[in-house]
Amino acid sequence: MNMLVVLAIILLILMYQVGGKNGIRSFISLFLNFIVVLVVVFFMLDTNTNILILTLVAVVLISSINLFYINGMNQKTLTAFAATLLTISILLTLIYVVSQQMAIHGFSEEETEELVPYSLYIGVDFLQVSAAVIVLTTIGAIVDVAISITSSMHEFFEQNHKMTKQQLYQSGVAIGRDILGTDTNTLFFAFFGGYLGLLIWFKDLSYSFGEIVNAKVFGAEMVTIFCSGIGIALIIPIAAALSSVTLQVKHKKSKPSL
Amino acid sequence: MRAKWRIIILIMVSLITTIGTYYNEALYDKPIAKIVHTKITAQEEVHDRGGNKDTIYEQQMEAIVLNGTAKNTRVTLTNEFSESGAFDTSYRNNQRVFIAFDDDSETTAHIVNQKRDYAIVLLGWLFIATLLIVGTKKGLLALISFSCNITVLLIGLELYSRFDHLSLLIVSAVIVLLFTLISLLFVNGCNAKTYTAVIATLIGTGTTMAIAFVVMLLTKENGLHYEEMQFLTRPYQTVFLAGLLIGSLGAVMDVAITLASSLFALQERNPKMTLIELKKSGRVIGQDIMGTITNILFFAYVSGAIPMLLLYFKNGLPFGYTLSMNLSLEIARALVGGIGVVLTIPITIHVSLWFMTRRQVSA
């Protein structure tokens, strides 16, 4: 039997056992996300697509799945959604500029040896592709931080309606700080696991320090690590600020009717 | 006032180190040149077998050598790049590049690589600054544990490549143990909550790896394609397993510490909660986080395969073949990580309850 099928079945059973209906929903969301990634790839194949705009559309779809499908459509998820979009737009600009300056797009020298049989003149703008890849790599973590902050702030505000905008913002940032470390850890260890082969490759082929720090693969990986860290940190004040405003506005609106 | 000074010092240090790296040509043995003039000398539209259109440009540049014996001499550089830039790039004025002189020539050369070191330093400082400004003390702790982890990883790999008889899996297991201790003890301090998370992480990671290993044996790795695994100088299976181990660890730790903190906080706020109630709350929290953390892993692994997928599809390779060649390892990693995340939920709940009952008995 196919190993991936077996692993997927084990994951599905475990998610159902531990999470019940929510577990099944998590599994389905994983599957939906996979489909979104494939659809994105298909649109990238059309050389007329603007890949940066396509990336933003993908972000809208992915955050809709991970926010609205899993947690329902409400003020918490809507605020998290807006914060995610805003953060990703800033991040995408940063990543695009950095990728352009550092020329980390496309395949590296180390990879091209295996690519000999293929035509590399395929007309897809690889600079935009590399920006899209880095943004998609981080999207899971950014959505996670956003929803954790907005739902905890909602909880705080429910318990104490007298909280000022400033106090709400501070509490949101405090929650964000708590998850900053763990979420960057999750992401970075996943990266390390993937880079393991590359690190051993550098050692075995005795790359010098200078060669490593200027290599395209290394540059691309450092940009991924640094930009995803920046993204996770950046969403904290953005989500906290948006949430503090929307909570107050909603509260003021609902007051007169009481 | 002190905060202001700290920011000024941070900005100064980052500027000095970035500019220092920008002008560090003297440290390199290989010749580095600064491009001062560039022009496109030829351009050609190409069509490949798959019907893809692209434009190839020829670029000629004047550059000044910045280091070595040929310092201050002018060289002519040529470069070819495509519109799509799948493996090539265009160059601009003022860029610094590593060059190799053409045979028997002191005036013509080609570009070997771009100088990227200063950009990495600058971006690194931006990363540090963002984490410090947003995260303050917590950001600093995260940065310190991050750099300790990298040091451990590098030392481990150094030992592995030096001593041939060391197994990569054993090295990785030791690395994982150190990662867990550094990341959890350092940020959360020595207390029952942290011990719970450490024990749960180790049990969770161990069980996950055992499951992955058994499934690999039973299915004879049917469906896994190592052919496209890049950068291999060692047996691919071991590299894959070691990567699996380290890759799932972060997510497992995330679940363990989040759940343990919440459970201990709940019990502190309401000491009268029964074990059954705590168990129930733990499940609810676990359900909330398992989906998002699995998704973090999924995107971290699968997104990286996109350029390869594009290349395969554009070269007219079939859908199923392209996916299985380029995604099988990434999906296996994401699934194993997901299994780790879900398994760690009941494990953490049980370890937490065990610590709590022990504390109650001793009290």
Automatic annotation (TrEMBL), chain A:
Keywords: Membrane, Transmembrane, Transmembrane helix
InterPro entries according to UniProt: UCP031503_TM, YibE_F
Transmembrane keyword on record: yes
Transmembrane stretches, start-end: 30-45, 52-72, 78-98, 186-202, 222-247
A Pfam entry, by short name: YibE_F
Domain of life: Bacteria
Name of the protein in its database record: YibE/F family protein
From TrEMBL, chain B:
The keyword Transmembrane helix belongs to this UniProt entry's keyword annotation: yes
UniProt keywords, alphabetically: Membrane, Transmembrane, Transmembrane helix
Domain of life: Bacteria
Transmembrane segments: 7-23, 118-134, 141-160, 166-187, 194-219, 239-266, 289-313, 333-356
PANTHER family: MEMBRANE PROTEIN (PTHR41771:SF1), MEMBRANE PROTEIN-RELATED (PTHR41771)
Name listed for the protein in its UniProt record: YibE/F family protein
Organism: Lysinibacillus alkalisoli
